[in-house]
Design a protein that fits this description.
The complex is a heterodimer of chains A (185) and B (544). The longest helix of chain A is centred in the first third of the chain and has 30 residues. Chain A has 185 residues and is an alpha+beta fold. Chain A contains three helices and nine strands. Chain B is mainly α and 544 residues long. The chains are: A alpha+beta (185), B mainly alpha (544). Chains A and B meet through helix 1, helix 2, helix 3, strand 5 and strand 6 of A and helix 3, helix 9, helix 11, helix 12 and helix 13 of B.
Chain lengths: 185, 544
């Protein structure tokens, strides 16, 4: 599965390019507004083309991401996919309770994290050693909170609550407790 | 004039509070209080920016989160609601050329919002009640972390603001529909239909010769449609406040209610449905309406494609009722069809409606070239740029795939929330303040154009810069609503704080400029009673 860092890099590039372009465009527009120019009226054709472009952009974004970000369809269809491994995790009193001290995972396994809160709304996220996020989900009490993820390379990950649950929530960090390793032959 | 004379009497002594009508004074009071609460929010923001670089030893973590709870509420209710409500309570009668329905009710709106904001801010400051504005159930009723007494006063303060909001809603709709004394009977139902867009909708199905004219102008229609969302939002927040209050008061009386009686996910849906009526409803509709009005006032021309603009405002109102699920894309128990339909598809409509407003405003300005780069024009362009940056950022995070790696990171609160509010919304409001300033002050002169220009650049660069650096940290995994103690994201946080400092300095320049324009005596004079008739919007000589 494509690493989430690759998707983030793509997003960073696309948004940065867009941001620079729109800032330059507005700067140019502001400059031209103060000058005399030919043709003051904006044609209706340009208006309809712009509307058409917005429609295409709005619709295509989700179609493209659904077909290029592998965890998107996997997430929506996770009830129909059999995981290779499952971890049941409980959260209560601002503490995660793991089924074992370390969660050991083999590369390319589809792993289900099933997290249950006994009191507040929390978050559940895995973070790389450089603090960047691999993925996250919300953990709502009284409901099933499960996420299916396929790990494509070895790594060590930290679990952190990604939702505010009061001041105590800032300390909900379990460092380096998820270990993804090469499959033993 | 010496500096001291100007400070006391205003630029060239032109501002005369005694010449102001009660409505002019009331609107200026809204603006002054709104700016004071903006200063609160900015200072709180700077404290948090510094805290994100290194926790300040004098501020405990629970105090930090109390600031984080109060900060957006003071900014939205205390500052933005004050300025927007004040402006619209003036503009609706101004544009319709009739007196406001009730000056007294408008005064109550002002008092309740000013007082309510102080009450919830002070309750949070003293008691550190800090469930954040999201109030995820059952956090507000977690008495192991929060004081029920503090919470009670906190909710009471919010309730006061909401009652003031309900008064605003009543006043706006009554002003649109009522018949002033001595006028021919106004068609109240038809005017309401026009304001809300029903008559425009019916026109779609009428033959060309049977189409009805719009009875209210486009800016008034925008205000009316945004006010619908304001009303719905006030209802949701009031209901939620009462729910929380029941738990708080019960605990104070020694009765612990079972907090699992409220379903946390259902509550979250309910709350976000209501809360999104602000973020994705009234803000976008009010802003679009304000852009249109500003473009028409600046150019003196009709709006480009104004029927499409009206239709887009109507669509935006309907869209705002159905987009809440984009806040629950990371909630695994949320039904998939709601995530796709409401969270992704309907949300994408905002790109279209806001894009239309953006294009129509620019096209209207373009039609009047050459324009002088006045303060109102440059701040309007800044506001347009802010939304052009923030809306696509929001559409990206409202995607099932991308939300998995963006939700609750600094990306959400940086390039989307802060750029939308600080650059998009606030610069639009500054534009409105600059254009209304001579009207509301009966021709007072701005003290310094250099200060105004500095304010513009400091705010624009500071706002975009802060959002950008927060976003970069978010893309590197930095969460919002937490504390980092090991300097993990210090490079980005130092740069964001410098940009935040620029915002603060820019605001101080603006504040100084306004105080020097009207003078200290003028500021005091705004808060003294007017002897003129409350039914007069402007002094009689100004009306002629």
């Amino acid at each position: 599965m494509v690493d989430s860092q690759v998707v983030l890099n793509g997003q960073t590039f696309a948004y940065t390019f867009y941001a620079i372009a729109i800032i330059l465009l507005m700067g140019w527009f502001g400059f031209k507004l103060t000058k005399e120019g030919k043709g003051k009226a904006v044609s209706s054709g340009l208006f309809y083309s712009f509307v058409g472009m917005l429609v295409i952009l709005g619709v295509s974004l989700h179609i493209i991401t659904y077909n290029t970000i592998p965890w998107a369809p996997m997430d929506l269809n996770r009830n129909d996919i059999k995981p290779d491994k499952s971890f049941n995790i409980t959260v209560a009193n601002h503490k995660f309770s793991l089924p074992s001290e370390k969660l050991m995972i083999d590369i390319n396994d589809k792993v289900l994290f099933d997290v249950y809160s006994q009191d507040l709304t929390y978050g559940f996220g895995l973070f790389r050693q450089d603090n960047s996020m691999l993925f996250q989900m919300q953990v709502v009490p009284g409901h099933r909170n499960d996420i299916l993820w396929q790990f494509d390379k070895p790594g060590i990950y930290t679990i952190r609550s990604t939702e505010y649950s009061g001041p105590k929530g800032a300390n909900m960090v379990l460092k380096d407790v998820v270990v993804v390793q090469e499959r033993k032959k | 004039m010496t500096f001291k004379d100007t400070f006391l009497n205003g630029a060239q002594g032109l501002f005369k509070p005694v010449s102001l009508t009660p409505m002019q004074k009331l609107v200026l009071r809204f603006v002054v209080v709104g700016l004071i609460y903006y200063a609160f929010a900015t200072i709180e923001g700077m404290i948090m920016r510094i805290y994100q670089i290194e926790p300040i030893s004098a501020i405990a973590d629970y105090q930090y989160f109390a600031i984080l709870t109060a900060h957006p509420l003071v900014g939205i209710f205390g500052s933005t609601y004050s300025i927007v409500f004040g402006a619209f309570l003036f503009l609706v009668p101004f544009l319709m050329k009739k007196p406001i329905w009730s000056y007294k009710l408008a005064n109550w709106t002002f008092l309740l919002i000013a007082l309510g904001t102080f009450v919830f801010w002070f309750a949070g400051f003293v008691s550190h009640f800090a469930p954040l504005y999201t109030l995820y159930w059952p956090l507000p009723a977690d008495f192991s972390q929060f004081s029920p007494l503090g919470g009670t006063f906190f909710v009471l303060g919010i309730a006061l603001v909401m009652v003031g909001t309900v008064f605003f809603v009543i006043n706006i709709f009554k002003t649109i529909t009522y018949t002033p004394e001595g006028w021919d009977k106004q068609p109240a139902g038809a005017m309401l239909g026009s304001a809300l867009g029903f008559s425009g909708l019916k026109n779609l199905f009428r033959k060309k010769e049977d189409k009805k004219d719009h009875l209210v102008s486009l800016p008034v229609a925008a205000i009316a449609r945004g006010t619908v969302d304001t009303a719905l939002n006030a209802g949701i927040i009031l209901f939620t406040g009462v729910l929380i209050l029941v738990y708080l008061v019960s605990h104070l009386f020694g009765v612990d209610l079972k907090n699992t009686a409220v379903d946390a996910l259902l509550y979250k849906n309910w709350f976000w449905w209501g809360l999104d009526l602000i973020a994705d409803g009234l803000v976008l509709i009010f802003v679009a309406g304000t852009w249109y009005l500003l473009a028409m006032l600046i150019t003196g021309k009709n709006l480009f494609m104004q029927n499409y603009a009206r239709a887009a405002l109507f669509i935006e109102m309907v869209v705002s009722w159905t987009v809440w699920s984009h806040h629950l894309l990371s909630d695994q128990a949320q039904p998939g069809f709601l995530k796709v339909l409401s969270g992704e598809m309907v949300t994408a409509f905002e790109l279209i409606t806001q894009g239309l407003a953006f294009f129509i405003t620019l096209a209207t300005l373009w039609s009047a070239r050459p324009l002088k780069m006045s303060n109102e024009l440059k701040f309007l362009l800044g506001g347009l740029l802010g939304f052009a940056l923030a809306v696509p950022a929001g559409i990206m995070q409202a995607d099932i795939g991308l939300n998995r790696i963006l939700h609750n990171t600094q990306w959400i609160v940086g390039p989307h929330v802060h750029v939308a509010i600080l650059v998009g919304l606030t610069m639009t409001l500054y534009s409105a303040i600059y254009i209304l300033f001579p009207i509301l002050t009966n021709g007072a002169k701005l003290y310094s154009q250099k200060l105004a220009t500095f304010h513009f650049w400091a705010h624009l660069i500071g706002g975009i810069g802060m959002g950008a650096f927060m976003g970069m940290a978010g893309l590197k995994g930095m969460l919002r609503r937490t504390i980092y103690v090991n300097g993990e994201y210090n490079i980005y946080m130092v740069l964001a704080a410098l940009c935040g400092g620029l915002l603060l300095v820019g605001f101080l320049a603006f504040f100084l400029n306004i105080v020097m324009s009207v003078g200290l005596k003028g500021v005091i004079g705004i808060f003294t009673p007017s002897k003129l008739n409350p039914k007069e919007l402007l002094p009689v000589s100004e009306n002629k």
